[in-house]
Each structure stands twice: as C-alpha cells, then as structure tokens.
Amino acid sequence: MKKSTFSPTMIANILKEFDHGKSIEDLTREHGISRATFYNWRQRYHGMEASELKRIKQLEEENANLKRMYANLALELDTAKYIIEKKL
Fold it and tell me: Which of 6, 44, 50, 56 could lock 12 by a disulfide, CB 3.0 to 4.6 Å apart?
C-alpha cells in the first residue's frame, strides 16, 4: 500500500481551510494535490478532527494487514487440503 505524503493533521488542516472559504483551485495549487484527491478526502474525512483521522488510518492499516493474513492462511489451507487429497 502506498504511503501518503500527507499526515492526517495536514489533511484535516487542508479541509478546514476549504471550510473557512479558501477556493479549491488555491488549495490544490498551494498543496500540490489534484482536485480528485481533494474531493476524495472531503468525501471520506469531512468534519473529522486530526485525531479521528489518525485513528481511521490506523484502523485501515490494521484491516489491510488482517485481510493479507487471512488470504495467506486461506492459501495455506487450500495447499494442505490439496496435499492431503493427493496422499489418499
């Protein structure tokens, strides 16, 4: 998974700047992000504080790790079943 160059605090600050009336063009130019990135952040994190964003990012990382672990275990189980069936 690609590491974001923007911390949750930075994302929250950018969204707050927009809430305080700064235009999207100014924000995207100033921070070097695309409009699509801004709209994705706004859709996902609108109204959250930096601490909440940190917690969400941690949970997303943990969820990705758990999914990866599950996929590995499922693959090992399938392999074990295949080997057992071959021996019988």
Answer: 50
